[in-house]
Amino acid sequence: MGFLSNFRKDLQTEKRKKAAQINGKNLKELLKKFKEERDRIEKETGVRPQIDDTTQMFMQKILNVWIEAGKEIDEEKFWQEVDYNRQFSHPVEYYEILR
After folding, report:
1. Keyword Coiled coil on this protein (predicted)?
2. How many other CB atoms are found less than 10 A from the CB of residue 97?
3. What is the pLDDT of residue 20?
4. How crowded is residue 78: how many other Cβ atoms within 10 Å of its Cβ?
5. Per-residue model confidence as pLDDT tens digits over 2-57
6. Domain total for the chain?
7. Which of 41, 63, 76, 85 has its CA 20 to 30 A from that of 14?
C-alpha cells in the first residue's frame, strides 16, 4: 500500500515539474515578444514606449511567484532591468539577492 502512495506522489511531483517547465518556456516566449515589440516601436519612433499596465501587472505576478517560490529577489534591480531595455534577458538567479 505504501509503495502505491509513494508512486502516486512521485507521479504528481513529476507532472508538476513538467507543467512548470512548460509554463516557464511559454512565459519566456511571451516576454521575448513583449521585448521585441518594444524594440520595434523604439526603432520606428526613436522613443522607448512605457510598459503598459497589463504587462506591468504580468511582470508583478512573475515577481510574486518567484518570491513565493522562496527566492529572495532584489526588486529594485528587477524593475530597473525589465523596465528599460533588457526585459527578462537574465535568468531568475540574476535578480536574486546575494548574501
Report:
1. yes
2. 10
3. 67
4. 21
5. 566 677 777 777 877 777 666 666 777 777 787 788 888 889 998 877 777 777 78
6. 1
7. 63
